[in-house]
Design brief:
single chain; 508 residues; alpha+beta; OB fold (Dihydrolipoamide Acetyltransferase, E2P); Dihydrolipoamide Transferase; five-stranded antiparallel β-sheet; 20% helix; binds oxidized coenzyme A
């Protein structure tokens, strides 16, 4: 064991660079190639890897320090004395430009003694306007990752590479339509030694104000820089890049989702983004496509519609007797007679009696609909979908039961068409087959109301001076308070209860 000084290696023609991250502390046991500090000039950022393994004795720099080649970074009690300070070449030559008329071909510059490197990001699109120094591609060898900046301003005319390609010096990256004809003398290069892919350590608990450290994360310098500027902890982002790399798109999506899901756009405090790994083991699980889609609509509807939920319990003892008497006829046709079809028919009767429930709000006008299409929430392995049963007023119980079976089977197989999920005027969400006593369904806009049904239960009901056991169905009616006031809500649910209590009334 001996103590060695680790100094700033040759980082190119740069006099003073700023220390922007110090990734080790005295007492840390570090591996060879582990990042010690991140430096940033106004042109480039780079991580300085340790030339050997050992234990950090003393750190001589701090965030904000200006340092240059040969300055002392830290002292290390070296584990392996045979290693020298071999550092990757950090300063590629100019990105090469050749020009035909106004279209300039941009090629990979000299990227050091590397034969072929992987293209891991191509963050440009044809037609995109590119600024000088904007990243055209991110390359990665087994030693370093580097962003290739554009030497000129222009519009992307053609892209010659894609993620996964192997490229070398002089490979064409893209062509840009530009006014500029001559190549830049010295482009700004950003090169970053790749940190060893390693399990993420459990982070020390941090206070919210403390800047986050992204040292153990696999991401390009540009991504790290933006995350640092926005104080985003990269550990909270699910990586989609190769080898667990966080791509620019991952970061952009994270920022977009955070803006949308935290209410930042509504002027409310954003939700804290927490590194849960500090409390225990975690894993990231991608939301299903349906969940991502429905999340947007549910969120929009929840925050933009003033909901009121009216609860009631309705006596369906007689209806249940009727259902039990007729169940087998339905079973013979291969369908189930459940309370849902009665709810659908009773809802239509209530919608006819209270037409504002069968409407949509457009500006200052109500669009009252003279058709009765009922959306039915169906639970599927991939999330919630709402197929629509059309013209419920014109259909009998058997037809409705058959249609419900067809639609829910298609829904669970992921085979519903967009058309089958459009045009509802009112929605029913029945959780009665599962359980629970009440819930607040979210309005399925542009509907203005939704009916939730929970599990029936026997309850003592006081009738004619005595308690009698009755089968009660809990209902939860959410409505848009801009369209429907509380009294109407109570009238609607009471009417619905009367219809379900004695279905003969629907014939009147
Ligand atoms: N109380 C007690 N039992 C009930 C009931 C209720 N309110 N509603 C249904 N049941 C019974 C049914 O009668 C059936 O029992 P039997 O087979 O003995 O007759 C059993 O529960 C299962 O019913 P089901 O779920 O197969 O059929 P359904 O017609 O009630 O519902 C469907 C069909 C597609 C709506 C339903 O399967 C479903 O997916 N529900 C979930 C909807 C959902 O996730 N909503 C949440 C949205 S968030 O706002």
């Amino acid at each position: 064991m001996s103590i060695v000084n680790i100094t700033v290696p040759d980082i190119g023609n740069v006099d003073n660079v700023t220390v922007i991250e110090v990734q080790v502390a005295p007492g840390d046991t570090i591996k060879k190639e582990q990042s010690l500090v991140t430096l940033e000039s106004d042109k480039a950022s780079m991580e300085i890897p340790s030339p050997s393994a050992g234990v950090v004795k003393e750190v001589k720099v701090k965030v904000g320090d200006k340092i240059k080649q040969n300055d002392l970074i830290l002292t290390l009690e070296q584990a392996d004395q045979t290693t020298s300070q071999a550092l990757p070449k950090t300063e590629p030559e100019a990105t090469q430009v050749s020009s035909t008329a106004n279209v300039q071909v941009i090629r990979i510059p000299d990227i050091g003694n590397v034969d072929k490197v992987d293209v891991i990001e191509v963050p440009i699109k044809v037609g995109q306007s590119i600024k000088k120094n904007q990243t055209l591609a991110v390359l990665e060898s087994d030693k370093a990752s580097m962003e290739i900046p554009s030497p000129i301003e222009g519009i992307v005319h053609d892209i010659a590479i894609k993620v996964g390609d192997k490229v070398a010096q002089d490979s064409v990256i893209c062509s840009l339509t530009s006014q500029e004809q001559k190549p830049e003398a010295k482009p700004e290069q950003k090169i970053e030694p790749k940190p060893e892919p390693k399990p993420q350590p459990i982070a020390e608990p941090t206070s919210e104000a403390k800047p986050v450290s992204n040292d153990s994360i696999y991401a390009s310098p540009g991504v790290r820089r933006l995350a640092r500027e926005l104080n985003i902890d990269l550990k909270t982002i699910a990586p989609t890049g190769e080898k667990g790399r966080i791509t620019k798109d991952d970061l952009n999506n994270f920022i977009k989702n955070r803006m949308q899901s935290t209410g930042a756009s509504m002027g409310v405090e954003p939700m804290p983004v927490v590194d849960f790994s500090q409390f225990g083991p975690i894993e990231f699980q991608e939301l299903s496509r349906i969940k991502k889609l429905s999340a947007k609509f549910l969120h929009r509807n929840w925050v933009s519609i003033p909901h009121v939920t009216q609860f009631d319990e309705v006596d369906i003892t007689d209806l249940e007797e009727f259902r039990q008497q007729n169940k087998s006829k339905f079973e013979e046709r291969g369908v189930k007679l459940t309370p849902l079809v009665f709810l659908m028919k009773a809802s239509v009767a209530a919608l006819k009696a209270f037409p504002t429930f069968n409407s949509s709000l457009q500006g200052d006008q109500l669009v009252i609909k003279h058709y009765y299409h009922i959306g039915v929430a169906v639970d599927t392995p991939n999330g919630l979908v709402v197929p629509v049963v059309r013209d419920v007023n014109l259909k009998g119980f058997m037809e409705l039961a058959e249609e419900l079976k067809t639609l829910s089977t298609k829904a669970r197989a992921g085979q519903l068409t967009a058309k089958e999920m459009q045009g509802s005027t009112f929605t029913i969400s029945s959780l009665g087959g599962i359980g629970g006593s009440a819930f607040t369904p979210i309005i399925n806009a542009p509907d203005v109301a939704i009916l939730g049904a929970s599990k029936t239960h026997m309850a003592p009901v006081y009738q004619n001076g005595t308690f009698v056991p009755r089968l009660m169905l809990p209902l939860s009616l959410s409505y848009d308070h801009r369209v429907i006031d509380g009294a109407q809500g109570a009238h609607f649910i009471t009417y619905l209860g009367e219809m379900l209590g004695d279905m003969r009334q629907m014939l009147l």
